[in-house]
Amino acid sequence: MKITGEVTTGLGKAAYFLSQEFYSRKFKKNLGFVPFPGTLNVIVNEEYLDEINEIKVNCKNLIKPDEGFGAVKYIEAILNDKIKGAIVFPAKTTHEENYLEFISQNKLRDELNLNDGDIVSLEF
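Above: the chain's sequence. Below: its structure in token form.
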């Protein structure tokens, strides 16, 4: 599935969670990289929500963290046809369902010179 969406600023909470050792260790083991402590937030069109929700519900990739933290489902994805990473689906989130959170080993806003409102593609 390949979709497009608009880059937006998140709430800044992902940096704290992704910097937790048990998350970074599991992502390294399962995806081959330690994620940059933050996500690239992408707002997608509502036409994609049924398919995305089906993927999320059926996703078997799960990180169960230490007590006090929420589980995270993830699916490998490619941003703009070149950046390998993953879309994460945190069990505890305050985002609307049309927000996707993409992780990779690099700070993508800097690497790709992305700003709010820019259009990106995600393939998963």
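The mean pLDDT is 90.
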